[in-house]
């Protein structure tokens, strides 16, 4: 009896491993396609995307396909048809109303600003939280959201902050959606935390990735 159960368990384990290994390439390919689409949305016109890691010691290195060193921050460099750097795409995440809201944002070095966002994943209330995808006034916040570094290059000159609807006064503020404030604030926190961590490492190394490899 025990031998039979052991045999069944071994066969089931083998089937699970085989199914996982067989589907892994398709899963990776789907992730790659989804990533490219998200980058194209936040940085329209990009002709080539290259994965990089910003390491804790300040180095910027090509992205590792099978994992990253501890503390490394992944980002995508987007290039135009001539191979010149158009901008950077990176992810931010923060707790929303129902779950974590993950967004990708596009950053342009020329203006030191965020020029677009796309939702990577969220489970906010349909018709309320998902307005961050459709509300034109909210999306306008990300046409030129100021994320300049301070003089010491150790953090943003002004933290990205979501403010009550109708009270935005500065270029680094996000005007929240009335009735969807929690989700709006999640977007702001996610972007601020990601930009505060990534940009101090990335900006001093921009010349290194200025041309497509």
Automatic annotation (TrEMBL):
InterPro entries: FMN-bd, Ion_transpt_RnfG/RsxG. Pfam families: FMN_bind. This is Electron transport complex, RnfABCDGE type, G subunit RnfG. One of its GO terms (biological process) is electron transport chain. Residues 96-198 form the FMN-binding domain. GO terms for cellular component: plasma membrane. Keywords: Electron transport, Flavoprotein, FMN, Phosphoprotein, Transport. One of its GO terms (molecular function) is FMN binding.
């Amino acid at each position: 009896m025990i031998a039979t159960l052991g045999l069944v368990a071994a066969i089931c384990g083998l089937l699970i491993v085989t199914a996982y290994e067989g589907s892994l390439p398709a899963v990776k390919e789907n992730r790659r396609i989804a990533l490219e689409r998200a980058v194209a949305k936040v940085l329209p016109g990009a002709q080539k995307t290259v994965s990089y890691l910003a390491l804790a010691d300040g180095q910027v290195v090509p992205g590792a396909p099978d994992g990253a060193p501890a503390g490394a921050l992944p980002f995508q460099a987007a290039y135009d048809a001539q191979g010149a750097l158009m901008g950077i795409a990176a992810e931010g995440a923060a707790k929303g109303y129902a779950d974590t809201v993950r967004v990708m944002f596009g950053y342009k070095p020329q203006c030191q600003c965020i020029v677009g966002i796309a939702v990577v994943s969220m489970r906010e209330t349909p018709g309320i939280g998902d307005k961050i995808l459709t509300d034109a006034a909210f999306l306008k916040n990300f046409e030129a959201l100021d994320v300049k570094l301070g003089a010491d290059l150790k953090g943003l000159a002004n933290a990205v902050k979501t403010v009550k609807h109708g009270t935005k006064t500065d270029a680094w503020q996000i005007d929240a959606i009335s009735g969807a404030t929690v989700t709006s604030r999640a977007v702001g926190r996610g972007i601020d935390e990601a930009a505060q961590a990534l940009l101090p490492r990335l900006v001093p190394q921009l010349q290194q990735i200025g041309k497509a490899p």
